[in-house]
User: Fold these one by one.
Assistant:
Number 1:
Amino acid sequence: MPPSKKRATPGFETSLAELEALVVQMERGEMTLEESLQTFERGTALARECQTALREAEQKVQLLTQVNGNEQLIPMPPGAHDPEALDPHAV
């Protein structure tokens, strides 16, 4: 990718993976209060980035699903809004 086209922020998958790693770290309960606050702050920023990326992707899908110039919304499958329903490794 040319230098002018590089992303200023990491991609969705990278942000999500980092967010998941932060959650695991926090769940261990081994951080100081200051470390926990910094990790939480980073996690909320990553969550916002992921939400923005998902919103943008949804908008692109809506644009791509236009039929004969008329937007045709295609319903999402049941459970699509539940991330655990889409994750085969979720407990």
Note: The chain has one domain: 10-86.
Number 2:
Amino acid sequence: MKQSLDGDGSMPGYYLPEHAQHRLQKLGEHMRFLARLAEPRTRAEEQARQPAIRMDELAFCLELLEEQVRLILDEARWPATLHASV
């Protein structure tokens, strides 16, 4: 998908403050960590009928993720314009 510049050399989009960008990066790291944590580490864990992580623990992690995503989206501003450097 190609983004085009407006007639004045600017590109419309969303503005995300630096602290929200940092929060978004940390959130991505946290999600990768949770994905690794959920992977089975032994053959027994792979074949177990019940996952090693309890559902209430998973629900809590997902609630925290939702809260962080909401905080980031609350910081996003529309419209924002990026001006092309000349």
Note: The helical segments are 18-38, 43-47, 55-75.
Number 3:
Amino acid sequence: MILRATRRIFFLALAPLLASCGPPYVVAPTGAQDSRTAKQGFASQGAASSGQKAVFPEARFEFGEVLSGAVVEHDFVLNNPGSAPMLIEKVSMTTPLLVTQMPHEVAPGAEGKIHFKLDTVDLEGEFEGTILVFLNDPALPQARLAFAGRIVPAVELSPMAAFFVAGQRGRGGRAAIEIVNHEPESLRIEKIEHPANRFTTQLDTLKRGQRYRLTLALKPDGPGGRAADTILIRTSSKRTPVLKVGANTYLYERVHAFPDVVDFGTLHAGDAGHAAVTLIIHQEGGNDFNAQLSTDVPGLSVKSERGPRGDQYQAELTLSLQRIPVGPIKGSIFIDTNDAQFRRVIVPVSGLVER
């Protein structure tokens, strides 16, 4: 899961100089750009001789890729080739960006530097920060700057810190994620812990000390239904000694319904219209599948239609909001079939009706 800090825009009241807080540590970011490689800047269209004129040689700073917890700092330069003082009235920015130093005024023919700091301790993934500088230049009263890059954890789970594996009984299923080391020290995977009754795992080395692949294989003869487990990966990293990976698995039968649980959520009695859910009933490998659907849920209408291939049905489940009683929705859809092994499939139905 990617964790991002909540982004809000806030305004900074000006003082002649703002002091910087001492960061826990500062790094030289990989791929940081200077004015020669940053995105093209911009300037106001006012005539230099008529007063103040704002020129930003650089409008976008891209710091590349840094480890989560690093502090990235950068100066945006403001030139004033005009004939009158340039005033910085206020600055707003995406949190957690901070201004640590900036001038109140830039004299004619001079330049000022606005110093920004980004603490990435609570950030992961892509960061796109917006900075608005409000000026007394009639031709450019508001300048928009960008502060962007990618924050990676010390040890990254790619594409995500979770498995989602579904498979039919007798076949199972599998999926893989990669463990990527972004630290300068070599990484060892010391142990992998998980429940063993539903699935197995296998670790492969792609590049020793740097990249590993973890594969989850859902057992074809394991317990049926859905389960959410946790895999613990113990590593040699001091910053990330334990990685947690979600293992979401679903072993379904040869005849099964999707979804296997119907939840209407929270509804309001007396509202116009209806709530509807589509239910698919499938027989793997069949061509003469027959199913009859019924329900014990008050006010629930069930209409089904057989598919052209003869191996599945599509059912429309409809609740009239004007007919259902107030209180919890609780009951089942009963699917009676001509399959000798699966004579009846039951799908639970739930929800809540409020006034």
Note: Confidence is low (pLDDT under 50) at residues 1-38.
Number 4:
Amino acid sequence: MQLDDIHIGMVDLLRRNGRLSIAALAEQLGISRSNAYQRYDWLIETGVITGFTATLDFRAAGFGVAALVFVSLEQNQWGAFRERLPTVPELEYFAVTAGAHDGMLLVRAADVAAIHELVAMNLAQWPSIKSTETVFVMDEQWDRVSLGAGFAGRALRSPGEWAGESPLGSTRHLRIAEPGEEDEGAPLR
């Protein structure tokens, strides 16, 4: 099964209000309750929906400052870095990146001094981190992309289909064949 417009609509509705009942989803999408249940279950079983969570107003919760901390890592230290990430209570999100830095942390704290302490006194001391660059978030406008933004109609891959791919945070180095070395059956390394 592939995502279709009804799946996308269901996900968008649930992202706005994760407490919607199946009956409300069915009504808003113009489908039967049975169809809504089947689609809802499929979205969970395939991993499109991984859970439900509360949406926070971070300022009201006392986390008035957000920053993006870009990190450059010692390449042989990815494992150690990943093991320590859960120890950072200010961490909301981490992504492996391409470009000048290896990763980006979205962190939140009460004030700039708390972010400074996190970066200068904590993260900068990790042997796995070569350098950091911190960018403060001035304003947040939108935190959600619609699945309708280009994913409709693409087949979902099961977890088994991901096997053999490089794990995130690992760099695959390829050797480029020199002219005359081409062996169509041999993979480049």
Note: Helices lie at 5-16, 22-29, 33-45, 78-84, 112-122.
